[in-house]
Design brief:
alpha+beta; 8-stranded antiparallel beta sheet; 30% strand; elongated
Length: 323
């Protein structure tokens, strides 16, 4: 074998060795080696939260959307529920066999809170260690020591997970009934009963748009207050109207859904926009707005030549003459 052949073989072996180092990274742990769970978050369609000092909460995912099953049966805020899956991606700092430790010492015999995925993957939250404030987390036969970024998420009230939208997304209003006014959609036109003076279809469209896109400042558990009136909304392909109670508690106004045991807090702007037709546009103001919209600015004056400038400014002309 020639020296050149030996050199080529040596270079080939070196290249193979480098490929092995890059691909397999011997001596380096895989990124998910210390991950507390192998459960794929994409496969989770049911979540249950259990807390010592609060009522349990259950969520179910149907057609890609999270809904709360209890204590309220209503749509959930998707990003808040999705954040409950982040625990599955957490890495741990240390792990212990439960059978070899006293779990009472870490409050895992009576955990502060528990989250259960798909009705079988259970994670118990114990106390924190004093030095780094890491959280003790029980899962299956192990106790993990993890960063305490997650615990607070499962301690909030059930209403903190609820969607703030007053109406279901994608649903269309076909009738809205106030105490002294009913708007009903008929062939693309809103019929008002009784019809206010200077009423226009644009007023009804504006009111319906406000309701369709309305999101409350917050959602709270239903409680009694001073009832001011009721509002009934009928949605397309749904014969049973949604009933809202307009409540006043102290100086705050709410739209309450007694059937769902929740109420939506309204801002001052929402009280103005949702509870009455917007004022009609006066005819003269309407004509002015149209005129302003159609107005074409006059062209800028052309630059005058020297003769025109002299004629327009005799003083300038006299000064030039004296020179």
């Amino acid at each position: 074998m020639t020296s050149k052949s030996k050199l080529n073989i040596a270079l080939l072996l070196a290249a193979v060795f480098l490929i092995f180092i890059v691909v397999y990274k011997p001596g380096k742990d895989s990124e998910n080696k210390y991950q507390i769970s192998k459960l794929d978050r994409a496969t989770v369609n049911h979540i249950r939260l259990e807390r010592i000092e609060a009522e349990p909460i259950e969520f179910s995912k149907v057609n890609g959307k999270w809904n709360m099953l209890s204590p309220y049966t209503v749509a959930a805020t998707q990003i808040n529920v999705e954040s409950l899956l982040d625990l599955l991606d957490y890495n741990y700092h240390a792990v212990y066999d439960k059978n070899k430790i006293d779990i009472k010492k870490y409050n895992l015999d009576k955990p502060h809170a528990t989250i259960i995925y798909n009705k079988q993957h259970r994670f118990d939250f114990g106390t924190t260690e004093e030095l780094n404030k890491y959280r003790y987390l029980g899962h299956n036969s192990k106790m993990y020591v993890v960063n305490d970024y997650f615990h607070h998420r499962i301690l909030g009230s059930a209403t903190s997970f609820l969607d703030h939208a007053l109406l279901p997304k994608g649903q269309h209003i076909v009738q809205i009934q106030f105490q002294n006014l009913t708007l009903k959609l008929n062939d693309g036109t809103w019929l008002a009963t009784p019809q206010p003076e200077q009423y226009s279809n644009d007023q009804a469209n504006a009111l319906i748009e406000k309701w369709t896109t309305a999101h409350a400042e917050s959602v709270l558990k239903y409680t009694t207050g001073t009832e001011i009136g009721k509002i009934k909304i009928t949605l397309e392909k749904n014969d049973t109207p949604l009933e809202f109670e307009l409540l006043k508690i102290k100086e705050t106004y709410f739209l309450a859904r007694r059937d769902l045991n929740i109420m939506y807090k309204l801002s001052k702007e929402q009280r103005r926009d949702l509870l009455q037709l917007p004022p009609p546009i006066a005819a003269d103001q309407f004509e002015k707005d149209i005129s302003d919209a159609m107005h074409t600015p006059a062209p800028l004056p052309k630059e005058k030549n020297n003769k025109e400038m002299k004629a327009a400014n005799p003083l300038q002309d006299q000064s030039n003459t004296k020179k």
